[in-house]
Amino acid sequence: MVREFHKVIGEETRRQAMEKWGGKPDVLVACVGGGSNAMGLFEDFVKDKDVRLIGVEAAGFGLDSGKHAATLTKGEVGVLHGAMSYLLQDDDGQIIEPHSISAG
């Protein structure tokens, strides 16, 4: 559902790239912290083998600082609200909130 609502990002990116450059972008980069902007941007390009899709996550003050949001790089598989995901956790499996400067 989120992808469907956010896919306008990718559709608009494709339209503007074709209009301005006459072709698709070579590379697309999006933050994968929450996933919605990445899903939206990538959706229109996922079948294009000639467009490289790169997802990045926030490293904050560094991966070894404890102040980051790099759940894919430093997280471990866990369950939150009934869904399996990569989570930042302490030794007892309790959730550690990621460091973020985002408004959300």
Automatic annotation (TrEMBL):
UniProt protein name: Tryptophan synthase
GO molecular function: tryptophan synthase activity
Cofactor: pyridoxal 5'-phosphate
Species in which this protein is naturally found: Linum tenue
Keyword line: Pyridoxal phosphate
Keyword Secreted: no
Gene Ontology CC annotation, any one: chloroplast stroma
